[in-house]
Amino acid sequence: MSGAALGLEIVFVFFLALFLLHRYGDFKKQHRLVIVGTLLAWYLCFLIVFILPLDVSTTIYNRCKHAAANSSPPENSNITGLYATATPAPRILLPFMQSYARSGGFSITGKIKTALIENAIYYGTYLLIFGAFLIYVAVNPHLHLEWNQLQTIGIAAANTWGLFLLVLLLGYGLVEIPRSYWNGAKRGYLLMKTYFKAAKLMTEKADAEETLEDVMEEVRKVSESIKYNHPLRKCVDTILKKCPTEYQEKMGRNMDDYEDFDEKHNTYPSEKSLVKLHKQVIYSVQRHRRTQVQWQILLEQAFYLEDVAKNETSATHQFVHTFQSPEPENRFVQYFYSPAVEWYWECLLRPWFYRILAVVLSVFSVIVVWSECTFFSTTPVLSLFAVFIQLAEKTYNYIYIEIACFLSIFFLSICVYSTVFRIRVFNYYYLASHHQTDAYSLLFSGMLFCRLTPPLCLNFLGLTHMDSSISHQNTQPTAYTSIMGSMKVLSFIADGFYIYYPMLVVLLCIATYFSLGTRCLNLLGFQQFMGDNDMTSDLVDEGKELIRREKRKRQRQEEGENRRREWKERYGHNREDSTRNRNVHVDPKESNFSEMSTTRSASKYTRANNRTERDRIELLQDVEPLDFNAEAFTDDPLESESGRYQPGGRYLSMSRSRIFDDV
């Protein structure tokens, strides 16, 4: 049973990580090493979280195997092997790949060199600290540590830094996730927040366009100064390939402008400056493309939320869209998600569903906060997670143990990982959906997951009293504890920081509830959405005007397309019908005129003395506007000398006899 469950979890977690990476990354444009490295980090971190409930239930089963008659306990060697493989691999690869992706070098060798230098500084700091600690242990005669204990100390130091980040992110997620669903149920809240985002995004979009223009101007100057016969021209061509298409067409290569750079003593940019310019081009183009895509997505969200607010008072209970989706919907979706179903869900059911979900998540948050403050107490057991697990252990209900552990750690991981996806550190780190995340942010998120997952699992084992350093019992440890080690080696961490630091989650939850961080950012000049702020009201009004302007522009565009379509359908068919009728149904007068023209043409070719003049008339007859409603026709067009218009309402051609007088 455990083997089948482990196999299903491995497959499910792989597709989950692949789906998230496809949503945030770009498989077509980003480097394969970046995709593989990020997928490996996300997959292994998610896998550890998902197989930990199976590890707990297997460990409890092994503890109680003396009470199970005629049953062999399952082995957890497969789980131990997965833990051993998943722990060190991403931490070693991701920092190097991150430096490689951020480098602006023009060759693989140059990028590897830059990555090695940056990582040498990064890892050298850790080695220096660890070396100082080893010297202290060697000099102090009272300390006798073995290799396993040193390994545990290194893991404990890394987990301590991860626990510091974990509590910060957990305190934010425990309050913000339930509150986001509760505010989402309020009428008009999401629309006001969307207006606020539109105003901020327009500012960022304008700044990205200005930055791109400045960088493209520098690229143009470099491209004009370095001609194609210069040794650094290959680097310039590499930079030009990263520029947008419209800028490439403007700049060009100027292949005809040959210059001998040895004869002229001009100052050319160095390769180091070109590397810096290459890095700026990659960053500015990525930022410009991201803001453009996000602006279009935000417009669609604003239009849809305005449609929801408009349809709430609809008496027909049919959801009406202002703009139809450009992409055709699936027939299955159209059949089951009809306008009536959409109206009941968007205007009636979804607010109540969000309120119920917010209440349920709030209850889970209270349980987590209570357990974080009381998990160190073993007699009596105050942690609710430990109470649930021990009650199920007494009844030998291992399925209930696995389900309870899965729901608990799933909620904890959602609170922590969703904060990783939400936070933004200026333009240094930002996970943008719809394939707009750059390579550096993807790899940085993988590093954060690798830092947060081990302390998250150890914290969960402490909440359930499955860690021997918390329960103070000499029982069989879990497979995860046997790999990651225990905190007993360092008493000040096991009995101090590891016990009391998670209690700070209470203060962080209170600060998040009263939006203290948001208020501090507003005071520093970083505008955040707050309902009781004048700056927020101004930005909401500005965003509302921007959305209204874009809406009018799109409405005019659709009206123009509709008019052109109606004109084509109305007059295009009439024109085809009139042409077809003129070819098939010939008027008797017209046929009579054709016979007269044929006779006249035949007589023209028999007159040798007048042949040149008649040839001119023959050419002009093909283009003259003829009056087929005339009652009589003259035999010779040369007889009409009166001009273009005649009183009978007939339009005739101009005089033929004077057209070629000047020739």
TrEMBL record:
- Which cell locations does it reside in? Membrane
Name of the featured protein: LMBR1 domain-containing protein 2
Q: Where is the composition biased (Basic and acidic residues)?
A: 556-592
User: What are its GO cellular component terms?
Assistant: membrane
Keyword annotations from UniProtKB, A to Z: Coiled coil, Membrane, Transmembrane, Transmembrane helix
| Coiled-coil annotated spans | 198-225
Q: What residue intervals traverse the membrane? A: 6-21, 33-52, 120-139, 151-175, 352-369, 399-420, 440-461, 497-516
Q: Where is this region: Disordered?
A: 550-612, 637-663
Per the similarity annotation, which family is this? Belongs to the LIMR family.
Query: PANTHER family in the record, alphabetically?
Result: G-PROTEIN COUPLED RECEPTOR-ASSOCIATED PROTEIN LMBRD2 (PTHR21355:SF0)
Protein topology in the membrane:
Multi-pass membrane protein
Database matches in InterPro entries: GPCR-associated_LMBR1 (IPR051584), LMBR1-like_membr_prot (IPR006876)
- List compositional bias (Polar residues) regions by residue number: 593-609
- Annotated organism of origin: Myotis brandtii
Tell me the Gene Ontology biological-process terms attached to this UniProt entry.
adrenergic receptor signaling pathway
